[in-house]
Amino acid sequence: MSGRSLTRTEAEQRASLLTVERYEVTVDLSGLLTGSRIRCESVITFTCHRPGADTFADCAAAVESATLNGVALPSAAEGRIALTALAERNVLTVVSVTECLADGRGVHKTVDPTDGETYVCTDFTPDYARYVWACFDQPDLKAPWAFTVTAPAGWRVLSNCGDPQIEDLGSTRRWSFPPTPPLATYNTVINAGPYYEVRRRGAGHDLGLFARRSLAPILDRDADELFTLTTQGLEFFADRFGMPFPQNKYDQVFTPGFPGAMENFGCVTWMDWFLRRTTPTRAEWDLFSRYLLHELAHMWFGNIVTMRWWDDLWLNEAFAEFASNWAAESVTSYTDAWTAHLANEQLKAYFLDQGPVSHPIRQEVNDVSEAEATFDAITYPKGASVLRQMMTYVGEEDFSAGLAAYFAAHAWGSTTLQDLMDTVAGSSGRDMDAWRTGWLETAGTDRLTLDHDSEGFILVAQGPAGLPRPHVLAVGAYARSGDRLERTARVEVEVEGERTRLDLPAGADLYLVNDEDLTFASTRPDSTTRDTFFDNAGRLPSPTARGVAVTTAWDMLMNGEATAAEAVRCLSGVLAVETSASALEPYLNLAVEAADLWSPEPEREKLLRAVAATCRSLSTVSAHRKAALRGFARTATGLEDVAWLQTEAGDDLDLQWRALVRKAQLGEQTTAEAQALLQRDPDPDAWVSRLQVRAATPDAAEKKAVWQTLMTDREVPLALVHSVAALFWSAGQDDLLTTHTAAYLDLVSTIQNTGTMPATVYTRSLFPLFGIDRTFLERAESLAAQTVPVVRTNLLDRADRMRRVLRSRG
After folding, report:
1. CA distance 368 to 457
2. Is residue 635 within 8 Å of 659, Cβ to Cβ?
3. 3-class SS at 196?
């Protein structure tokens, strides 16, 4: 059954009418070893503030029976069960059945191809609990939840609260979990299967890690680091938020087939792609450390305190993203967290925020379907960067005091933007109204440009619609010292208008606007140093300064103010000296993208050779070796290069697969080698690596077969779709790709019938990179108007990106 999207007005009316006292949910998973049906009984006890009033409960699963206060109810319509003539105190009992489908919403079933074991997980963001059991599926109707789950005897069942009572029933076991604290529907979870478990004590808590059995060696390899990061995060957030995590157990479950990561209270669910099958690079650990801390921060931002409605999604996501970088930099070994954020996520935010689907961080959301489209780079990384600017604006001590006051006042409740602004204003003594309006309620990116006149330097600031936002930022002056640059002056200013006078020395070799990356803004060098800017970026003395320069160069490329060759030159200079392994791999990816995707065809091979030479040089540095060889695998221009890479890769199966991909792209036969490597590779997802080789092959029959597997049959796990799709759209294969560009548009209408994550992944990852022209982009943009919001925004964003790419290709 499909369900009508809940509107804001309906949610407000229902919240004013009801108080939910508790949920008691009984779930039967016993048939999932051989079937796909789940049977649930949901008993909801709630009060009505206006007895005699009418409302509805949400249930988009098939309803077998429903009673209100013992009286049978009519069948559900459009995912809603009508509740009429409510008493002051009510008990709603609904028995429902749902199917675990490949693109199903709310619940996922995966069979591990290695050993045939079955795993099940739930995923209820934003309002998908209603697809599994009856509930009031909106974030502000929080209540305690008590789960009773029947599952096959060999399975573990995990939920929000630990220490369940377990009864043996022969071929099954019944798991009865104690009630949770008051939680929103989407914060609840059930994970089940024959999981491998590792446990430790940390920060006074009982910490658990779980993975499918076939990945037990990988979990053992990473367990020490995962426990260390979790412990550090729990201690840091307890201190900064003035509130320890209020539960003894904290579990993290790496499950196959899960499409992302979800911050369920006390039981975070991860796609097990995060358990890297080859030893992770420093950049991969840096990224995952921030993801881990992001989900942990959600225990406070989202679970303990929940946004009242989806227009304040940023209260969850932007704060969790910000807090993860704050914690990583403060207490973990990943002290380059903000630099890595700048090199990776923040660049995506700059792009999205200057395109056709830009929106305020906080925006009006009329219904949940609109909310699905806001899980993006503006809500997440831009929001995080803006919150860093808020902390700079009010000072870290006052900012932390405001957060502690916020949690003390609103624990286990729901809040709005104003609630947070009030506590930060109270702790800092600053009027936050103009800041809130400019940063949270205004779309677009400010542009900061350095100019000068006869009296000296001027920082010119322009907002998306005229006047700029309030900024606190720094501008640095750098002069040559040997083959490096040294900062000779740093001016920190508070921008309150279009022109701000700066006391900077004349004659510097480079002026860096937004030095130290204190604010979120598109920046430009002054006109006199523009042409040497790309060469001088690598001479800057710190990873953050180099990161700001790379960001400026990339933003210029995106906006048609720099060429792909200039971007490659800038990145090559930075890569040659980069000391931060956390930033180096993202820079390598950008250099490859500039050379392979953004460059005019006549220049492509030359630029690829330049990047390949940089990678080969970096491969001699042990800390950068694996990342450099990965970059080389994407830029090798001949079979001799591939043969060298295969020798260098040795027993690293991941690199061997990457070498075969490149060999396939170059038009060489790889069938026998790929089959032999598949037989050697113990990774349960190794078949996807084999599919990547086929996707890269310039052969019409292979393209057709891969498209069938990837898009028509949708057999590839969502976490791995992009890795296959990016190779499918390989450079130099335009003639083979044209038919599939049309097929992509034909399938857009079916993509929107999936959940938020599948719709996002398929729309974004499968968008063609080659074999298209402006006519195709116009068709895509026209089609976007006919789709649901999450597909529409991603389709328009991808079309905008490729329009800029085509302009760069000339």
Report:
1. 48
2. no
3. strand
**pLDDT tens profile 131-150:** 999 999 999 999 999 999 99
Q: Which residue has the tokens 């604010």?
A: 519
The amino acid that residue 159 corresponds to is S
Q: Which pTM was predicted?
A: 0.95
Eight-state DSSP code of residue 74:
P
Those residues with Cβ within 8 angstroms of residue 437's Cβ, 6 or more apart along the chain or in another chain: none
Q: Calculate the alpha carbon distances from 736 to 608, 663, 721, 772 in Å.
A: 22, 18, 20, 11
Cα three-residue angle 705-711-114, rounded to 5 degrees: 75
Q: What is the mean pLDDT of residues 252-281?
A: 94
How many Å apart are CA 136 and CA 447, to the nearest integer? Answer: 44
CB 44 within 8 A of CB 91: yes
Predicted pLDDT of residue 91? 98
* Contacts of 440-443 spanning 24+ positions with Cβ under 8 A: 440/314, 440/360, 440/361, 440/362, 440/386, 441/360, 441/361, 441/362, 441/363, 442/360, 442/469, 443/353, 443/358, 443/359, 443/360, 443/363
> b vs e for 141-178, b when ≥16 Cβ sit within 10 Å of the residue's Cβ?
bbbbbbbbbbbbeebbbbbbbbebeeeeeeebbbbebe
- Lateral strand order in the sheet of 118-123: 106-111, 118-123, 190-193, 156-159
The predicted-structure confidence for 423-449, as pLDDT tens digits, reads as follows: 999 999 998 988 999 999 999 999 999
CB count within 10 Å of CB 65 equals 12
Average pLDDT estimate for 543-569: 97
What's the CA gap between 249 and 266, in Å, rounded?
7
Instruction: Look at the block and give the residue holding tokens 């330097």.
Output: 457
What element of type H or E holds 599? none
User: From residue 282, how far is each of 324, 333, 340, 574, 683 by CA, in Å?
Assistant: 17, 11, 11, 18, 21
Active-site annotation, residues: 295
Digit-coded pLDDT (tens) for 492-525: 999 989 999 999 999 999 999 999 999 999 999 8
